[in-house]
Design brief:
The protein is about 25% helix and about 20% strand. By secondary structure, it is of the alpha/beta class. α12 links the parallel β17 and β18. The chain has a domain of about 100 residues: GMP Synthetase, Chain A, domain 3.
Length: about 600
């Protein structure tokens, strides 16, 4: 992959590995039992192979996320917390703590109270973490929005049908939104569609109809509500949105305890080489992964604040900016995704000495693959602690992480402390042991979400009555219980790591007057992984044009959701007797070139 093709791709390529899995539907289609069956000649119990973590349990403090972070920042008041990678502006942990309280006080004066929702629509910048913590301190909820989304300019469509920014603000019930000046025009359009936003806060110069973040930061802190009582196990702190097996994105309800637990788990002594600040020692993180996504939000941004580290925020991936940051800031920890790893390995202008201060590289969002990891070690050094993780938004996000010593290349490691996992056979519902084949990965632990916001059915389809989160990913394990992700059950399309829900594009295309029926699938692509392709049945007495329909979709959706795989016209869409689209038939035809 060339350097320029990675611009803005890596920034958008860290959507979670898994979402919901409608287990009941799959089992019913297979017409197989889900409780007991004979394996060879031996009756096997359903949960014979529940995987316990090999790591000792960690203590999970019964505190709110904000207090968890604030208590850490109090220990490092003079150490740099945030550096704006574009401007060089810096904030210390002490300044971050003070500004968080000022901002919380100011937001409270504006009417943001416990249980209210504030939307953050912003690229990476120091202000992102500040707003997140201040909102949490009020007992309010952060809904972080993909800032590559569009406003959706279709005035004839009802707000309940809107996707992207307007849809998320509407579904979450957000009453305020914080955004970057460059995104303000898009936010204004979204707020025209969704009327529930009372205040638009902009991290820049104040414009008509907005309030500048700086003006709120001048608050004297007197309105900060010290009597807010947060129940960490029940109260939400974050509401990111994730597409499920089918349908539109759903709000993932993450509690204060979910986030605190996951940070504590990742910081287990056997799992991390990241050190808490002490004396002259301070970790430096290069913050290029988007903070609106759970990977950037928790194991990058939040963990950095917890250990008293320094975060250099980059608003997007740009090769020259990234290289300059490596040279200028000398990061010690790199959070990556496979396309970013590929850039580091393949670009000849990225020299090994640029990573001389790096001791830990983490990779997630999708399997990196043995060949890429080996190329990384060959170009740089195997003295770097390379770790591959697995997770999903619904698990805050990490469930598996390879240890800091003893990497098994190609595996995402074993299950985290305080967490259990199992792999279930899709034909029987029984658990599979080491080297017994492939099945669906399920996890159980304190990092698992509370459920989907205002969507009880989707919650029940994803978390069973025993509390197991069904990931929808196919996995296997070796004799040491290292997990290997091999495939996914979901119908989601993954474009350079960023997920696309077919139902979302189908819903948009159905609005076009020339479309009678439609199905969208992902077709393989060497560079992107997959590309969305639409199969369209034209309405009677119409002659739709491929380019017209592709442009129609492109004007509405984010760039990664465009129909780059093409538009094909067919006489009918293959469906099951119950009306479910048989995407596997379309994919088979596509692979055969039909």
């Amino acid at each position: 992959m060339g350097r320029q093709s990675l611009i803005n791709v890596v920034y958008r390529s860290v959507i979670k590995r898994s979402t919901s899995f409608q287990r009941t539907n799959i089992f019913s289609e297979l017409n197989v039992p889900t409780t007991r069956c004979f394996s060879s000649t031996v009756l096997k119990r359903k949960d014979d192979w529940v995987i316990q973590s090999p790591y000792s349990d960690v203590e999970i403090p019964d505190v709110s996320f904000s207090n968890y972070i604030f208590e850490a920042q109090e220990q490092f008041p003079d150490k740099t917390a945030m550096v704006d990678g574009l401007t060089g502006a810096t904030w210390t942990h002490g300044e971050m703590l003070d500004m968080s309280i000022r901002l919380a006080s100011g937001l409270h004066r504006l009417g943001l109270h416990q249980g209210d929702v504030l939307g953050i629509v912003s690229p990476n910048c120091p202000e992102f973490g500040l707003v997140f913590c201040a909102t949490a301190a009020l007992g309010a909820i952060n809904t972080t929005v993909n800032c590559t989304y569009t406003a959706v300019q279709l005035s004839t469509i009802e707000i309940s049908q809107k996707e992207e920014i307007a849809q998320q603000l509407h579904n979450s019930g957000a009453s305020m939104v914080m955004t970057h000046p460059l995104l303000l025009p898009v936010i204004r359009k979204a707020c025209h569609l969704y009327k529930g936003i009372r205040h638009i806060i902009v991290s820049g110069a104040e414009e008509e109809g907005t309030i500048s973040l700086q003006r709120i930061l001048n608050d004297d802190k007197s309105a900060f509500p010290h009597n807010v009582k947060i129940n960490p196990a029940e109260d939400l702190v974050a509401l990111p949105y994730s597409s499920g097996t089918t349908g539109l994105p759903k709000g993932v309800m993450l509690t204060h305890r979910n986030l605190v637990a996951n940070i504590q788990q990742v910081l287990h002594d056997d799992l991390t080489s990241v050190q808490t600040a002490s004396g002259d020692t301070q970790e430096c993180f290069l913050g290029v992964l988007p903070m609106f996504h759970i990977y950037g939000m928790v194991p990058m941004m939040s963990l950095c604040m917890k250990v008293g580290g320094k975060m250099v925020t980059l608003p997007r991936f740009d090769p020259q900016l990234y290289k300059n940051s490596l040279l200028t800031h000398k990061p010690s920890v790199l959070h990556t995704v496979p396309p970013l790893l590929g850039y580091l390995v393949q670009d000849p202008t990225v020299k090994p000495e640029m990573l001389k201060c790096v001791h830990n590289v983490l990779s997630g969002a999708a399997p990196a693959g043995p060949s890429l990891i080996n190329l990384f070690f060959k170009k740089f050094t195997d003295d770097i602690c390379f770790q591959e993780g697995y997770g999903m938004t619904e698990a805050s996000p990490v469930t598996h992480l390879s240890p800091k010593k003893g990497l098994v290349i190609g595996s995402c490691g074993n299950v985290l402390p305080n967490t259990k996992a199992k792999i279930i056979d899709l034909s029987t519902g029984n658990t599979l042991g080491p080297n017994e084949g492939e099945g669906e990965l399920c996890v159980h632990g304190p990092q698992v979400m509370k459920g989907y916001y205002h969507n009880e059915k989707a919650t029940k389809d994803t978390i069973d009555e025993d509390g197991w989160l069904h990931t929808g990913d196919i996995a296997k394990m070796d004799e040491d219980k290292n997990v290997f992700i091999v495939d996914r059950l979901k119908e989601l399309i993954k474009v350079k790591g960023l997920q696309v829900a077919p139902a979302e594009l189908e819903d948009i295309l159905r609005r076009h007057p020339t479309v009678a029926d439609v199905a969208v699938i992902g077709i393989p692509d060497e560079r992107a992984g997959e590309l969305p392709r639409a199969y369209v049945v034209a309405s009677s007495n119409s002659s739709p044009c491929q380019d017209t329909l592709a442009s129609y979709v492109a004007d509405i959706v984010a760039p990664h959701k465009k129909l780059a795989g093409g538009v094909h016209f067919v006489d009918q869409i293959p469906k099951s007797p119950t009306g479910k689209i048989l995407r596997r038939e379309l994919k088979a035809a596509a692979l055969q070139g039909i």
